[in-house]
């Protein structure tokens, strides 16, 4: 779903919104003051505030109760803090089910869509994170990205085997970079903590999205500074860059933003008489994205 309006009938006056604003301001202050672990401290503090608000005001969830309630999870103190995870879906895989249910052509289009989206989501996220961490070379390339993509692909497969979403790289990793993470040790620690979190599900389920989202806003503010390297004086560069930035949040997809950017870049440079300066690979990628955006209409026609 794409956001078409702000709040409910144009109003964002609600307790969850107030908690979110508190979280943004608190984390912003902690980052400015260079407090170690500021984002984590901010999330915990905001969660505590959210729990107090819920206990006093009884806001409740937004689904089926109050449109102005909490999204995804309600900040209520759990009856227990630990539990055994349900692993019944692990290994519950049907490799060829889609091909028999919706047909070979439609299933192939779906696989193409997933691969293209996953690849460019990963490329865009890795490049952005690498640049923010100062790990890219002078040309803006991330050293060792080939090995990183192998891990990315393996994670995507492992996610499927585990009957979970793709274990791809997420932009939330920027919060670790903001705290100083620069080596693979940070990833190992994150993985170990995720394993431990499996047994602490009742505890972290009380963290509402309104307490976690402020961290992404703060990190986004840090990462947006990278646009200073874009030459906005040239419209053939400015428009693709602008569309890339705005399409991502409007469509909830990094791949969509990158795709629109590729297509616009190629079209504008060709229109400006610079078609020969466009690398052949860019033409190929732009064509793939045209096919990517046409997948849904084609699939609907076939099914």
Automatic annotation (TrEMBL):
Point out the coiled-coil segments of this chain: none
Q: Which GO terms describe its molecular function?
A: purine nucleobase transmembrane transporter activity
Supply the alphabetized keyword list: Membrane, Transmembrane, Transmembrane helix, Transport
Q: What Pfam families is this protein classified in?
A: Xan_ur_permease (PF00860)
Query: What GO cellular component entries does it have?
Result: endomembrane system; plasma membrane
Q: Would you say which domain of life the source belongs to?
A: Bacteria
Task: Tell me how this protein sits in the membrane.
Answer: Multi-pass membrane protein
List residues traversing the bilayer: 12-32, 39-60, 98-120, 184-201, 254-271, 278-295
Subcellular compartments: Endomembrane system
- Family in the record: Belongs to the nucleobase:cation symporter-2 (NCS2) (TC 2.A.40) family. Azg-like subfamily.
**Name this protein carries in UniProt:** MFS transporter
């Amino acid at each position: 779903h794409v956001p078409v309006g702000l709040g409910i009938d144009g109003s964002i006056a609600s307790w969850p919104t107030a908690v979110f604003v508190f979280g943004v301001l608190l984390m912003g202050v902690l980052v400015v003051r260079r407090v170690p672990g500021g984002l984590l401290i901010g999330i915990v503090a905001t969660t505590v505030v959210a729990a107090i608000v819920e206990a006093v005001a009884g806001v409740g969830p937004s689904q089926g109760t109050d449109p102005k309630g909490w999204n995804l999870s309600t900040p209520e103190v759990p009856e227990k803090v630990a539990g055994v995870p349900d692993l019944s879906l692990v290994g519950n895989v049907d490799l060829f089910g889609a091909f028999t249910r919706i047909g070979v052509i439609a299933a192939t289009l779906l696989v193409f869509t997933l691969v293209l989206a996953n690849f460019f989501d990963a490329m865009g996220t890795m490049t952005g994170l690498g640049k923010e961490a100062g790990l890219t070379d002078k040309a803006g390339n991330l050293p060792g990205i080939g090995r990183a993509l192998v891990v990315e692909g393996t994670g995507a497969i492992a996610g499927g085997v585990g009957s979970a979403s793709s274990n791809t790289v997420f932009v939330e990793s920027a919060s670790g970079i903001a705290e100083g993470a620069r080596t693979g040790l940070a990833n190992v620690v994150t993985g170990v903590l995720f394993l431990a979190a499996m047994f602490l599900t009742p505890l972290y389920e009380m963290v509402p999205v309104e307490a976690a989202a402020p961290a992404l806003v703060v990190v986004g503010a840090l990462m947006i500074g990278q646009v200073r390297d874009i030459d906005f004086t040239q419209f053939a560069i400015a428009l693709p860059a602008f569309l890339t930035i705005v399409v991502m949040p409007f469509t909830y997809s990094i791949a969509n933003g990158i795709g629109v950017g590729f297509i616009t870049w190629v079209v504008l440079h060709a229109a400006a008489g610079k078609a020969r300066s466009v690398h052949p690979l860019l033409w190929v990628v732009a064509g793939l994205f045209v096919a990517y955006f046409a997948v849904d209409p084609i699939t609907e026609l076939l099914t």
